[in-house]
Design goal:
transmembrane helix, membrane, transmembrane, 62% helix
């Protein structure tokens, strides 16, 4: 645009020289002068239009960049909020799960010792329920992410492998029922089962096999 303006200025100067030196006739001078002023006015109009257009494009580009940045920031904020919410929800589920496991294990132990009647009410004259004997060997059970169950034995040293397998199987089934009742896992997750780690105190004494989580590999 600057080159065009320079060319027009030079053209105007040339016209003025012609007007002064070559065209003595006043009427011709008037026509030339009108033409020259017309080109000058045209030059300013073009310059103003280009300036306005440039400002509009810059403003539009700035607006688009601001809008794009705002959208990116909004998406990042939403993603961060979702991740935080998901993490908080997972922690809440684990806490809810472990409370349910504790409650169910205590209830199974009370049935095993005859402290509850068939309706689950406390009694001093109840009969021990042998199907819950497995629970008397379990200190506690805890649930963690990825559907993992930790089972803690009071004392497993006097138990055979078959007895430990039966106890773990019963404990797992009770845990699945407790977690479903608490709404921590659904039917599909219950069907998939829970992988298990078995402890004696703080020592790991058994873990679920990789290809079959329902079978325990004992140390």
């Amino acid at each position: 645009m600057e080159n065009i303006i320079v060319a027009l200025v030079l053209w105007v100067l040339g016209g003025l020289i012609i007007w002064k030196l070559i065209l003595p006739d006043w009427n011709k001078k008037k026509r030339v002068r009108a033409i020259l002023w017309g080109f000058v006015a045209f030059t300013f109009i073009i310059d103003g239009f280009v300036g306005i257009t440039g400002n509009y494009e810059n403003t539009n580009s700035s607006s688009e960049n601001t809008s794009s940045s705002s959208k990116i920031s909004s998406k990042q904020s939403q993603s961060s909020n979702k991740a935080s919410s998901k993490s908080s929800s997972k922690k809440g589920s684990e806490s809810k799960a472990n409370k349910a496991l504790e409650k169910w294990l205590e209830q199974d132990q009370e049935w095993a010792y005859g402290k509850l009647d068939s309706d689950g009410n406390s009694t001093d004259s109840g009969e021990p329920q042998s199907q819950f004997n497995w629970s008397t060997h379990i200190q506690k059970m805890t649930y963690s992410k990825n559907d993992h169950l930790s089972i803690y034995f009071f004392d497993s040293q006097s138990l055979s492998k078959t007895e430990k397998d039966e106890i773990v199987s019963s404990a797992r089934n009770s845990a699945i029922a407790a977690l479903m009742d608490a709404g921590v896992i659904d039917d599909d997750e219950a069907s998939d089962g829970l992988s298990v780690t078995v402890y004696q105190g703080n020592k790991i004494i058994g873990t679920s096999k990789i290809l079959n989580k329902n079978e325990i590999l004992w140390d």
